[in-house]
UniProtKB/TrEMBL annotation:
Taxonomic superkingdom: Eukaryota
UniProt entry tagged with the keyword Oxidoreductase: yes
Coiled coil: none
SMART domains: PKS_KR
Gene3D superfamilies linked to this entry: NAD(P)-binding Rossmann-like Domain
Source organism (scientific name): Dacryopinax primogenitus (strain DJM 731)
Alphabetical list of Pfam families matching this protein: adh_short (PF00106)
Protein name: NADP-binding protein
Domain Ketoreductase: 8-201
Length: 256
């Protein structure tokens, strides 16, 4: 039951759109307090307002707190300074959702650009690791906490043209497994969620803004939407404390 999520502090990276934004709303509905991170302040603030409305609609007491914080996970200095920006009452994070990520270009390995390669690793891998490092010591000290990493089907099986993105998501999978084994003698939980095709802002970013190329990917199937994956995130977080969903692989029907 999502009752277990009431009054928990949930930190979500990449909360300004797509899966992360939908997750923010669902956690708010469940009565969780939120720390929401992303680079675009306007989008992030709009999500924070929608989450606040969800708090009110769900009858969450005035105690329901939401802190939108503009932050680029690919910037080590900004991540280092994050805790100083988190309000005192939200310092004890219970659930960390490492969701920020993107794919740039679908290129042949010989054509991959140095800056795109670096950007994908910086956000999808190093950013996720940095944010985890920031909170895992607290989780260990408190003997509680849940890290939920958003990987991808692309991390399970690589496809042609996905050279760097697939490699970043394979790294997320591998890192999640290491982390889980590192905390296996504690109550800390580690989950990696591996979605298939989800129609979000990500879909068109991938093709450098080319909408018709983006649409072609979804021919012959009904892609997942951000809310579908957000529901899975909330579901794993709300399991009884003795259950850890280590991996959750969720695909649209008809995706090969
Ligand atoms: P969106 O592009 O809709 O959302 C991505 C979010 O990440 C945005 O809020 C964006 O906000 C944020 N973000 C990107 N880079 C950074 C950064 N450096 N620092 C902080 N925030 C950042 O995509 P999705 O919701 O689809 O993607 C969410 C996750 O799901 C990603 O990890 C993606 O790889 C994964 N995924 C997506 C699939 C899909 O088909 N869509 C399939 C499988 C996995 P802002 O620009 O404001 O920073």
């Amino acid at each position: 039951s999502t009752q277990r999520l009431e009054n928990k502090v949930v930190l979500i990276t990449g909360a300004s759109g797509g899966i992360g934004a939908e997750a923010a709303i669902l956690f708010a509905k469940a009565g969780s307090n939120l720390i929401l991170l992303a680079r675009r302040a306007d989008k992030l603030n709009a999500v924070a307002e929608a989450a606040s409305a969800a708090h009110k609609a769900a009858g969450v007491q005035a105690g329901g707190k939401i802190a939108p914080i503009v932050l680029d996970v690919s910037d080590a200095k900004q991540v280092e300074g994050l805790k100083a920006k988190i309000p005192a009452e939200l310092q004890n994070v219970d659930i960390l959702v490492n969701n920020a990520g993107f794919v740039l270009g679908v290129d042949k390995i010989g054509d991959i650009k140095e800056d795109e390669m670096a950007a994908m690793f910086e956000t999808n891998v190093y950013g996720l690791i940095r944010i985890t490092q920031l909170f895992i010591k607290d989780f260990k000290a408190r003997a509680s906490g849940h890290v939920i990493n958003i990987g991808s089907v692309a991390g399970r099986e690589a496809y042609a043209g996905g050279g760097i993105y697939c490699a970043t998501k394979a790294a997320v999978r591998s890192f999640s497994q290491s982390l889980l084994r590192e905390v296996v003698d504690t109550p800390i939980r580690v989950t990696e969620i591996q979605p298939g095709l989800v129609e979000t802002g990500f879909s068109v970013v991938r093709f450098h803004g080319d909408q018709s190329a983006a649409d072609k990917v979804y021919q012959g199937l009904e892609p997942l939407v951000g809310k579908d994956v957000a529901e899975e995130i909330v579901w794993v977080a709300a399991r009884p404390p003795h259950i850890n969903i280590a991996e959750l692989f969720v695909m649209p029907v008809n995706q090969a």
